[in-house]
Design brief:
By secondary structure, this protein is of the alpha/beta class. It folds into 2 domains: 189 residues, Rossmann fold (3-Layer(aba) Sandwich); 151 residues, N-(1-d-carboxylethyl)-l-norvaline Dehydrogenase, domain 2, CATH 1.10.1040. It is built from 19 helices and 14 strands. A hairpin with a 2-residue loop joins β9 and β10. α4 packs parallel to α5, α11 crosses α15 and α15 runs antiparallel to α16. The longest helix is centred in the middle third of the chain and has 20 residues. It is globular. The termini are close together.
């Protein structure tokens, strides 16, 4: 399928970058946003104007606040919203999605595809809906004006996995025509547990809480906020994440190795690698603590990592401490509201069951069989 119909859900920086990128390449694009404000200029311009690494007017055939209208007849539904919005979006999709449609989370953070799949099933969505997640967002972008988006960079390679993993090739067979950057990860446990936002965002923010409140974030987040002591804490968070990944047979990259691969930053310690990363120079700290580095990354990244660790018998004391601090700071029980075992649909399963679920979409527990219905040939788009 060289030309697919795409519904992009989310009118923010990433959503408009994706809509414009697809439109420039000749795909039919529908753009959905919960409120109309960000869509008015897109309608007026007939699309999204991209500047920077991508340039031109990406045509958008429909800009709407009606989710059912946006996805009607779409081959691929690209979800580009904060991970905390995955749950309500999935609940709405369950009522309107049709067999054969592909739902891709950009990105899934940790456990995103598991959570969305679980909500779709519980919501009575039809058989044959494929759910996948990207490990990170493809674009680094910012809205410059209404309907105008600057794309600073497009990543060259982004791992992606469907749940179950046996459907990953089917998803890539359609979206690779528009996005050759996506390649197959082993399973959603791999994309979920290589989540670097979980390492660099909540811990650094909370350990700099007093300074953020005193200065309004007027300091370099990484160059000044990651002191040797802070680096040791986030390195321990990273070690716990990798131990959880290993328990599920996933080879996760260390944060230090990732800094080298992504930015060419080197160092004997994580602290040195962060300081040597020129890409982080000048990035300011959040202006306040009511920030997505806490309210997004804790419930949709650290909480599910700790849950997966508990299921596999891997202790995550530092991660748990950060979750508790975040809950205290915001007065919110992130363990209850975040991606816990119930919300991800893995309550009562053991580690082997979770692996089987992520790879084959099937596991047995207490004489029950959980099956993700697979599409038959006639269900597939095109």
């Amino acid at each position: 399928m060289s030309r697919a119909i795409y519904a992009v859900l989310g009118g923010g920086n990433g959503g408009q970058a994706m809509a414009g990128y697809l439109g420039i390449r000749g795909h039919e694009v529908r753009l959905y946003n919960r409120t109309f404000g960000k869509l008015a200029a897109v309608r007026r311009r007939g699309g999204v104007v991209l500047e920077g690494d991508e340039q031109g007017l990406g045509r958008v055939t429909l800009a709407t606040t009606d989710l059912a209208e946006a996805i009607r007849g779409a081959d691929v539904i690209m979800v580009v919203v904060p991970a905390t919005a995955h749950r309500p979006i999935a609940a709405q999709l369950a009522r309107v999605v049709t067999s054969g449609q592909i739902v891709v989370l950009n990105p899934g953070r940790t456990g995103g595809a598991l959570e969305v799949r679980n909500i779709l099933i519980e919501g009575g969505s039809p058989r044959g809906v494929l759910v996948a997640e990207a490990q990170t967002l493809l674009f680094a972008s910012r809205l410059l004006d209404d309907g105008v988006c600057r794309v600073y960079s497009v990543k060259k390679f982004v791992p992606l996995a469907a749940v179950p993993a046996k459907d990953t090739a089917r998803v890539l067979g359609i979206i690779n025509h528009a996005f050759p950057q996506f390649y197959a990860a082993a399973c959603v446990l791999e994309t979920s547990l290589d989540n670097m936002g979980a390492i660099f965002h909540p811990g650094v923010t909370l350990l700099n809480a007093a300074r953020i409140e005193a200065t309004g974030g007027d300091f370099d987040y990484y160059q000044e906020g990651v002191t040797p002591t802070v680096a040791r804490v986030i390195e321990q968070i990273d070690n716990e994440r990798m131990e959880v990944a290993a328990a599920y047979g996933v080879r996760a990259r260390s944060a230090k190795a990732w800094l080298n691969e992504a930015y060419g930053a080197e160092g004997e310690t994580l602290h040195e690698a962060v300081l040597n990363n020129l890409g982080y120079a000048g990035i300011k700290a959040p202006p306040h603590l009511d920030h997505r580095y806490i309210w997004e990354d804790v419930p949709t990244s650290l909480v599910p990592i700790a849950v997966l660790g508990s299921i596999a018998g891997v202790a995550t004391p530092t991660i748990n401490a950060i979750v508790s601090l975040a809950s205290a700071v915001h007065g919110t029980d992130y363990r209850r509201e975040g991606r816990n075992a119930v919300n991800m649909g893995i309550a009562g399963l053991n580690a082997d069951d979770v692996v089987a679920l992520s790879r084959q979409g099937r596991t047995t527990y207490d004489d029950r069989i959980f099956i993700i219905d697979q599409p038959v040939a006639g269900d597939m788009p095109g």
